[in-house]
Write a structure and sequence with these properties.
By secondary structure, the protein is α/β, with parallel strands linked by helices. It has 14 helices and 10 strands. Strands 1, 2, 3, 4, 5, 6, 7, 8, 9 and 10 form a 10-stranded mixed β-sheet that branches. The two termini are 25 Å apart.
């Protein structure tokens, strides 16, 4: 199959808000529709058909089994536009971007949209398996006597709802608990984490002040900017927060140096060069390559360390060094996770034994890291984060001028990591 370059045209999203606040009464479908509508309006797609739309969510209800298609039909796109759901935890919308790019690259489609949504305010509340079995049996019962017998067999304990939790089924630990193990293993201090969190807030606040987000973030429900951003935070304020995962004196992860539970959605438009020129769309950046890896966290590897492997493999395949980038967008699930990743790249032992390299990948220039803020400051609606980062990096590269290169790194639940290279 022939291949061709694929370009990021632009991104659009609604403001990210802390869960159970501004969007507490808004469904995930409504959140996703709002971002897609913003993209449709931004790039004059009303009534038009795009090749495909890939959307997804982590906190996904079975009632939204056809979420992407339903969102498309409410977005202003022509109903002939197909759509499908994808889920790769926090890497969902980056994975969607990669898939749509492959379709365009191989001439299957000319343009496509990727995105994602998550809301911890619109959680799919489930019933216990015991109660579910009894309800199924009740529905199948033929006689009144059979139904009465089943109803009388329902116990109060059966009625207890089952709430979804962001924990690893194989360990029973949350991401934060796993990250606490990682920062202890890599000797990452509380101050280092707080300093990285502070930089995220400062960079994001400056980006808003500069108008960088004016054509990326669109008003919704009366909100114009991300609700988690704290432009006035200081290292002193961050240092006063108590640990939330390991509450002993050894704990270092706090609400200030971890990403918050967030509601929101994001989208990104991709196209071939020919399609972009035909529609007078900008060519912000092209997608060069991507790689996904996984680690055996059950056997003792850090749950969120898979990005180290993904980046290493991506660099090998493209003949690049870690320092061959002008910008780094490393998703801040936790400040500690970012710091562990960078420390691992600097470790000769880790790079030799885990990455199969004779030399360490080395350090990155911190002034090139998350220069417009990242998940700690802006928020992290799980499945929406990847597309948000793609839109941000593409604009950064475009503003920096031709020949610039950026690296996207996203860790995910289940011990996976996704990395991508963009170039202007």
């Amino acid at each position: 199959m022939k291949s061709r370059n694929v370009y990021i045209v632009g991104g659009a999203r609604i403001p990210f808000m802390k869960s159970m606040t501004a969007y507490r009464d808004v469904s995930s479908e409504e959140l996703m529709t709002a971002s897609l509508k913003s993209l449709v309006n931004r790039y004059n797609l009303e009534g038009k058909t795009v090749g495909d739309v890939a959307l997804g969510a982590v906190m996904h209800s079975s009632a939204n089994w056809n979420l992407s298609r339903e969102v498309v039909q409410s977005s202003g796109l022509h109903p002939n536009t197909p759509a499908y759901n994808v889920q790769r935890a926090c890497g969902t919308s980056l994975e969607n971007t990669i898939q749509i790019a492959h379709k365009i690259s191989s001439h299957q489609i000319e343009s496509g949209i990727a995105g994602g949504v998550d809301s911890n305010s619109d959680l799919p509340i489930m019933v216990s398996r015991t109660f579910a079995r009894k309800l199924i049996a009740l529905n199948s019962a033929r006689t009144l006597g059979e139904k009465v017998k089943i109803i009388l067999g329902i116990k109060p304990s059966d009625l207890k709802p089952v709430l979804p939790a962001v924990v690893e089924p194989r360990t029973g630990k949350s991401m934060g608990e796993h990250c606490e193990l990682m920062v202890k293993e890599w000797n990452i201090s509380r101050q280092e984490q707080d300093e990285l969190a502070l930089a995220s807030h400062r960079n994001a606040a400056q980006a808003y002040k500069d108008g960088f987000y004016d054509d990326l973030v669109f008003p919704f429900q009366g909100n114009k900017t991300d609700g988690i951003l704290r432009a006035d935070t200081t290292l002193e304020k961050l240092s006063k927060l108590k640990p939330v995962f390991d509450k002993s004196e050894k704990g270092t992860l706090t609400a200030g140096n971890s990403s918050s539970l967030t509601d929101g959605s994001s989208t990104v438009l991709l196209a071939s060069e020919e399609e972009a020129k035909k529609n007078n769309w900008p060519l912000l950046a092209k997608i060069v390559d991507s790689h996904t890896s996984a680690v055996d966290y059950v056997a003792g590897e850090g749950l969120l360390m898979a990005p180290t492997v993904a980046v290493s493999e991506l660099l090998k395949r493209n003949g690049l060094k870690l320092q061959d980038f002008d910008f780094y967008e490393i998703h801040e699930a936790f400040a500690g996770q970012v710091l562990c990743t960078m420390k691992a790249w600097e470790s000769p032992e880790y790079c030799k034994t885990r990455l199969g390299r004779s030399e360490p990948l080395g350090k990155i220039d911190r002034t090139k890291l998350n220069v417009r803020g990242s998940s700690i400051a802006l928020g992290h609606p799980f499945a929406a984060t990847g597309a948000k980062i793609v839109g941000v990096l593409a604009k950064i590269l475009h503003q920096a001028g031709p020949g610039k290169r950026g690296l996207i790194v996203v860790c995910t639940a289940g011990g996976m990591g996704v990395a991508s290279i963009l170039e202007s």
